[in-house]
From TrEMBL, chains A, B:
It comes from the Eukaryota. It is found in: Nucleus. The keyword Protein biosynthesis does not apply. This is WUSCHEL-related homeobox 3. GO terms for molecular function: DNA binding; DNA-binding transcription factor activity. It comes from Cocos nucifera. The keyword Transcription regulation applies. PROSITE patterns: HOMEOBOX_2. Coiled coil: none annotated. Keywords: Developmental protein, DNA-binding, Homeobox, Nucleus, Transcription, Transcription regulation. Its main location: nucleus. GO terms for cellular component: nucleus. InterPro entries: HD, Homeodomain-like_sf, WUSCHEL-like.
Length: 178, 178
DNA sequence: TGCTTATGAATGAATG
DNA sequence: CATTCATTCATAAGCA
């Protein structure tokens, strides 16, 4: 769990030297290469951010929903996080020149940031997957009436498939509802 | 089931928006989150591909075997050689009415050879670092005796580790299982 | 009841 | 850094 320790300490994208050291340490427990460490940090950071993002988006969604739910309905006090900071706020040090052992603009608990490692991750990027988001689409809707308007979920097959079916994927025209 | 319908319709990797809608619809039948839908598609696609791949490999193996039966020494290995083919083998599977570009049956590695294809960059490490290379720091000393002087770089604790650095289960030393 | 299968979840390894 | 794929884990379901 060394890696997580380091991660919690603020290490996000270790540079070559750091990776070397980490790898050296970890090699005690078994065969390990630098790329393993590298990948670990990559994945961990990405997934951490993902989770965070989903929290944010969920909250935002809730807020949005509540805002649009009723004009007069007072928001149940959820003013937490409205992080819409400038798009140029995250910028890690592209693993080249920056040492993030001490972190920087993040709440890097240099000592011991147990919970709440709020990272001002990106927010202006295109659309990634907010799926992992626990967008409880089920909760906002009262069980007595479902706002589902029978979306045409079947014929949707638009730009989701761009890599694998790149050859000549199914035509997304009028999918004739299979 | 709805998801299978969609899958058959050609949906493979729905994007965020699609997942949202699907989740919304499915939420009518019970509690469901976006990640569930995401995982479903991931798994379904993967296993579909897996089945396909297995079938193909089996067939090709049979053919290969039969062809080389009289020519070369018949491989006494069990016919359940299974997968271990080039990572990029087949890409799509047949959808009912979608496109089934099963093509790409490239040089079906008749003899998959173990090659150390590594380190594709080594150029300006502006993007991918060069540790993807097999820089093995664990080499200087046998992994069974700790040569590392326990660098005080960070608080390393040898608690249970079974996934992070054990991508290779070949932990020669006592893998300090917890 | 013990085993095999099916499946959701998670993670390592890439690739773009 | 985002996205995808392959593998693996854990567990529930099905069956002999």
């Amino acid at each position: 769990m060394i890696l997580e320790e380091m991660y919690r300490s603020g290490v996000r994208t270790p540079n070559a030297a750091q990776i070397q050291q980490i790898t050296a340490h970890l090699s005690y427990y078994g065969k390990i290469e630098g790329k393993n460490v590298f990948y670990w940090f990559q994945n961990h950071k990405a997934r951490e951010r993902q989770k965070l993002r989903r929290r944010l988006s969920r909250h935002q969604q809730l807020l949005h929903y509540q805002l649009h739910q009723s004009e007069d309905a007072p928001p149940p006090s959820s003013p937490i996080l409205q992080n819409r900071m400038p798009p140029h706020f995250l910028h890690q040090e592209a693993t080249s020149q920056g040492m993030d052992l001490v972190g920087k603009l993040e709440t890097v608990g240099t000592e011991e940031e147990e919970e709440e490692e709020e990272e001002p991750m990106t927010s202006a990027m295109g659309f990634e997957q907010e799926w992992l988001a626990t967008m409880d689409v089920s909760s906002p809707v009262p069980p007595c009436c479902r706002p589902l308007k029978t979306l045409d979920l079947f014929p949707i097959k638009s730009t989701g498939l761009k890599d694998e079916c790149s050859s000549s994927k199914s035509s997304s025209c009028s999918t004739s509802t299979n």
